[in-house]
Amino acid sequence: MSRQAIQRLGFAVLTIVAVLVVAPIFLVVAVVVFRGLQGISWEFLTAMPRDGMKAGGIFPAIVGTLLLTSGTALVAVPMGLGGAIYLSEYAHDNWLTRAVRLALVNLAGIPSIVYGLFGLGLFVLFLRLGTSVVAGSLTLAMMTIPVIISTAEEALRAVPTEFRTVNLSLGGSRWQGIRRIVLPQALPGITTGIILGLLRAAGETAPILFTVAAFYMPQLPRSPLDQTMALPYHLYVISTQVPNMPGTIQYGTALVLLALVLSMNILASVIRTYFRRRRQW
Questions:
Q1: Do 16 and 149 reside in the same domain of the chain?
Q2: Residue 49 belongs to some domain of the structure
Q3: From CA 17, how far away is CA 91, in angstroms rounded?
Q4: Which end of the chain is more exposed for a tag (fewer CB within 10 A), N or C?
């Protein structure tokens, strides 16, 4: 068999494998969109749930998801970015930093249910925050920080060393070089890592199951120490715990959560493209 024939065969096999992987994803999305659109309405998006969540809307779940994602970002982004800057720009390459990086990789792969139990023990019981927005946000932040640190550090280390050398040769301090040169050049990768971490937090059910999520709460939280509904947990409840739940409500909720995740992905792509065009290498 000639080399060209082998290449064509290899491309054909890769194409078939790619189609087999991608086709089920598109099928699931198509089913969710088709059946979910039948239940989407203005009332569904803006009304409070009633009749045991069999009627009304999912407004508290939408607001709760946005609150938890925002709270997670407020905690995880500064800590994750600060940790990445220290590991990339200040820490020496020794056994301790290698152990920290290995720990971060392992923490990023820990099942979310473990973070939920950790949040229950630390924030809910030990710190006595109760099942609240604060406890849920802190738990999701602890789950998100390793992802942000790992991806942001890789983005910072990918910036050529020449940028740092030129800054020092012109009399700039290390922090000035990081703030004015390295960070702007690494923003595409940093943004991707932050959005990926927040996407995981927005779609998780297990961590908020123990720390914040309410089964049925037809009102908005009045303080950070209140419980709240959230789309992932709400979808789990109406799909498994509520008998005779209309399918339009289930698929409508799934479509709203899918739209939220996709919108965050699109936002990340736009921001990444914008900063890549301004990158100087």
A1: no
A2: no
A3: 43
A4: N
Q: Do 68 and 182 share a domain, yes or no?
A: yes
Number of structural domains found in the chain: 2
Q: Which domain holds residue 265?
A: 55-278
In whole angstroms, give the CA distance from residue 136 to residue 121. 12
Residues 111 and 246 in one domain: yes
Looking at the structure, tell me whether residues 2 and 115 fall in a common domain. Answer: no
pLDDT tens-digit series, residues 154-165: 899 888 888 888
| 96: in domain | yes
Under 8 Å between Cβ of 185 and 281: yes
Angle between helix axes 133-157 and 183-203 (nearest 10 degrees) is 140
- pTM assigned to the model: 0.87
Same domain, 129 and 24: no
Is 264 inside any structural domain? yes
> DSSP readout, the chain?
--HHHHHHHHHHHHHHHHHHHHHHHHHHHHHHHHHHHTT--HHHHHSPEETTTTEE--HHHHHHHHHHHHHHHHHHHHHHHHHHHIIIIIS-SSHHHHHHHHHHHHHHTS-HHHHHHHHIIIIIIIS---SSHHHHHHHHHHHHHHHHHHHHHHHHHTS-HHHHHHHHHTT--HHHHIIIIIHHHHHHHHHHHHHHHHHHHHH--HHHHHHTB-S---S--SSTTS-B--HHHHHHHHHHTSTT--HHHHHHHHHHHHHHHHHHHHHHHHHHHHHHHH---
pLDDT, one tens digit per residue, over 259-270 is 988 888 888 788
